[in-house]
Design brief:
This protein is an alpha+beta fold. The protein has one domain: 2-Layer Sandwich (HIT family, subunit A), CATH 3.30.428. The chain is globular and about 40 Å long. The chain binds guanosine-5'-monophosphate (5GP) and zinc ion.
């Protein structure tokens, strides 16, 4: 069994509140939400961080963005707005080393982020 937390969510070994599921990615609610609505979109295939992304990952990463944007739209966040963000490595605060796209919504989000 994989020792990657998010691979284990993909396989169903660790439960999560799924909000999206397709051939390439899954979306689920963040366990420690940083906004009233906080979901994570991850590729089914393990990719540790954007540091490992190659041109072969273009379709997969584009797919993640479009899936998260559709979810935000379906949840009614198009007009008030939302944020899609990926943290990469230490300075950005990445804690789980399986690529994940955060979708944050439901409050005024500060810029620049902390
Ligand atoms: P990072 O800091 O790496 O960008 O984001 C990791 C995110 O994963 C955090 O927002 C954290 O709350 C979330 N997270 C960590 N462990 C779990 C878990 O077991 N289940 C869920 N649903 N989210 C998790
Ligand atoms: Zn993984």
């Amino acid at each position: 069994m994989s020792d990657c937390l998010f691979c284990r969510i993909v396989s169903g070994a660790i439960p999560a509140k799924l909000v999206h599921d397709d051939a390439l990615c899954v979306g689920f609610l963040d366990i420690n939400p940083q906004a009233p609505h906080h979901a994570l979109f991850i590729p089914r295939r393990h990719l540790a961080s954007m540091n490992e992304a190659t041109p072969e990952d273009r379709e997969l990463l584009g797919h993640l963005m479009v899936a998260a944007a559709k979810y935000a739209r379906d949840q009614g966040f198009s007009e008030p707005g939302y944020r899609l963000v990926m943290n990469t490595n230490r300075d950005a605060g990445q804690t789980v080393f399986h690529v994940h796209l955060h979708m944050l919504a439901g409050r005024q989000l500060a810029w620049p982020p902390g």
